[in-house]
């Protein structure tokens, strides 16, 4: 680990410590790390519009207890990391989505997923890490695929959760799930945003496994920590302007475990299967009853799967 980095206690999680890391490319990422610095690192990359606190504490602690150092961070444009002010023209999101589904190229976003993967690559360097195990969820899984293809020397093994390689003609997200994610809240005060977040959790999450009280507390905590809807839209445009990762998947030589929920209606399981099929030797694990989230019920099993995968 880079000893020059100054870590403070996390205000959110007793066993994590936070710091800011200047990447040297104009971006500063807000990072938390927990566990023994001597243990092998697992870097967690979160999805679209999701702050690092979407990685449940219980999930992080489970990995730490199994002998890993766990690092999570806010991607650019979200949480406490740098925000990107876009000077460019407004893009027609629906038109981009249509082209994206057909595998046609889009351009014009302020940045794309390659830029976000570059952030993670620089973060690994700045933290003085030699090689990391990586778990990417959803959009974070797309970033992790790019990273593993472009910077194999920085990655030990690859773990992916409810993600996609966005190859053409995969079944689209169910409309209700997609529009919950990119829809507008009724109001922009705390209650309006918390209600909206709760609705999203319930629509994309694992049916029957969502604790409503916890979900409200989480939504409130996230809102109070940072609310930046422009960043969510820009990250969505980044996905649309990156397009298919199929050719990159074919270059990945890392041992890969792809985990997907059977009840995921945002990215149906065929997306995860497509990734596993495209990456040589990848293993695919379908979790019965899980949606597009990481509820406590599934954490002991999933964290065990990843810990075993990285350890094998």
UniProtKB/TrEMBL annotation:
<dbReference type="Pfam" id="PF00561">
    <property type="entry name" value="Abhydrolase_1"/>
</dbReference>
<protein>
    <recommendedName>
        <fullName>AB hydrolase-1 domain-containing protein</fullName>
    </recommendedName>
</protein>
<feature type="domain" description="AB hydrolase-1">
    <location>
        <begin position="40"/>
        <end position="169"/>
    </location>
</feature>
<dbReference type="InterPro" id="IPR029058">
    <property type="entry name" value="AB_hydrolase_fold"/>
</dbReference>
<dbReference type="InterPro" id="IPR050471">
    <property type="entry name" value="AB_hydrolase"/>
</dbReference>
<dbReference type="GO" id="GO:0046503">
    <property type="term" value="P:glycerolipid catabolic process"/>
</dbReference>
<dbReference type="InterPro" id="IPR000073">
    <property type="entry name" value="AB_hydrolase_1"/>
</dbReference>
<dbReference type="GO" id="GO:0004806">
    <property type="term" value="F:triacylglycerol lipase activity"/>
</dbReference>
């Amino acid at each position: 680990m880079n000893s020059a980095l100054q870590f403070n206690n996390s205000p959110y999680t007793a066993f994590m410590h936070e710091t800011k890391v200047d990447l040297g490319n104009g971006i500063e990422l807000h990072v938390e790390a927990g566990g023994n610095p001597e243990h092998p690192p697992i870097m967690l990359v979160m999805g679209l519009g999701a702050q690092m606190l979407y990685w449940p504490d219980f999930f992080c602690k489970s990995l730490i207890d199994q002998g890993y150092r766990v690092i999570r961070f806010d991607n650019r444009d979200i949480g406490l990391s740098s925000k990107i002010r876009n000077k460019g023209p407004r893009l027609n999101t629906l038109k981009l989505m249509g082209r994206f589904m057909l595998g046609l190229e889009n351009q014009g976003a302020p940045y794309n997923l390659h830029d976000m993967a570059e952030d993670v690559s620089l973060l690994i360097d700045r933290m003085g890490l030699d090689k990391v195990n990586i778990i990417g969820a959803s959009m974070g899984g797309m970033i992790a695929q790019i990273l593993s293809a472009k910077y194999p020397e920085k990655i030990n093994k690859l773990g992916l959760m409810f993600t996609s390689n966005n190859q053409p003609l995969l079944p689209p997200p169910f409309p209700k799930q997609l529009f919950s994610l990119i829809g507008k809240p009724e109001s922009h005060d705390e209650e309006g945003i918390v209600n909206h977040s709760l609705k999203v959790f319930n629509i994309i999450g694992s049916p029957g496994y969502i604790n409503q009280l916890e979900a409200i507390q989480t939504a409130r905590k996230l809102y109070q920590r940072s609310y930046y809807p422009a960043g969510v839209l820009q990250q969505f445009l980044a996905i649309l302007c990156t397009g298919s990762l199929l050719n990159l998947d074919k270059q990945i030589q890392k041992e890969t475990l792809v985990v997907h929920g059977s009840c995921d209606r945002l990215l149906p399981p065929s997306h995860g299967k497509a990734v596993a099929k495209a990456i040589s030797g990848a293993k695919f694990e379908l979790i019965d009853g899980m949606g597009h989230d990481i509820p406590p019920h599934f954490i002991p099993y999933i964290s065990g799967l990843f810990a075993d995968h990285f350890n094998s």
